[in-house]
Amino acid sequence: MLQHNLEETLKLAKKGDLGKREELIRNHKNFIAKVSSKICNRYLIWNNDDELSIAFLAFNEAIDNFKPSEGTAFHSFAQRIIRNRLIDYFRKESKHMHISLSPMDSSDEELRRYDEEYSYEQYQEVEKQAVLAEVVESYIKVLWEYGVTLDDLVKVSPRHKNRKETLMMVALKLINEPSLLEYLKKYKRLPVKELKLFTGVNRRILDGGRKYLIALALILSEPRFYPLKSLTEIPCASIGEKVSRQ
């Protein structure tokens, strides 16, 4: 599956998909630096060493010329192109002493380990995205029960920092006051009158931020929605306080 994803990304990049090419390069910056440093027998730094610029271009070349049908793994093919271009560069610059002329086979084990690490990282990312997709789907269904949609949230999300901070404060007070939270969950409505008395926030602000407050309160009060907490911009410590009380 992961190998298939890599091949699909390569195929799209070769066809001119700049987004996929950038993704491929971004995910392989460590690989490019590692291979180049090994060939040059010294640690190389991006935006400082010309060798990495050469290797970067070579990796692009590898994307364009790689052919899965020839039976060579992409990482092995890319390493060979990088090595050849660096050798050409050093010969031109008369810097032969920097080149590692050891046989390519000597690094096969290292490349195999890299392939395994890369595949595991990709697997973790796929799993993370799958879990997040399930959480979002469940969240959308629960929001609907409260008469809120994602489109609503886009429209009512506060644009100004002060308003956003005020509503975040109200949401935190809401989830930490059992009677208010119980009212919200039981009646699927925001207890606006009680919140005004409890927080001192103007009713007009509470009414205008009703759907936003409901969305925040659900994320912060239900553990199953915690993966979405990064969307709230509320410090994790605040959520931790709520959890410790339950």
UniProtKB/TrEMBL annotation:
This one is known as RNA polymerase sigma factor SigI
- Lineage, top-rank taxon, reads Bacteria
**An annotated Gene Ontology molecular function:** sigma factor activity
Q: What HAMAP family does the entry give?
A: Sigma70_SigI
Sequence similarity: Belongs to the sigma-70 factor family. SigI subfamily.
The feature table lists the DNA-binding region at 192-211
Indicate whether 4Fe-4S appears among the record's keywords. Answer: no
The UniProt record lists the RNA polymerase sigma-70 region domain at 24-95
**What are the UniProt keywords, alphabetically?**
Cytoplasm, DNA-binding, Sigma factor, Stress response, Transcription, Transcription regulation
Quaternary structure, per UniProt, is: Interacts with RsgI.
Specify whether Protease is a keyword of the entry.
Answer: no
Q: How is its activity regulated?
A: Negatively regulated by the anti-sigma-I factor RsgI.
Family matches, as Pfam families: Sigma70_r2 (PF04542)
- Which GO cellular component terms, listed alphabetically, does the Swiss-Prot or TrEMBL entry include? cytoplasm
Q: Where is this motif: Polymerase core binding?
A: 50-63
What subcellular compartments does it reside in?
Answer: Cytoplasm
What does this protein's UniProt record list under function?
Sigma factors are initiation factors that promote the attachment of RNA polymerase to specific initiation sites and are then released.
Q: Name one GO biological process term.
A: DNA-templated transcription initiation
PANTHER family from the entry?
RNA POLYMERASE SIGMA FACTOR SIGI (PTHR30385:SF6), SIGMA FACTOR F FLAGELLAR (PTHR30385)
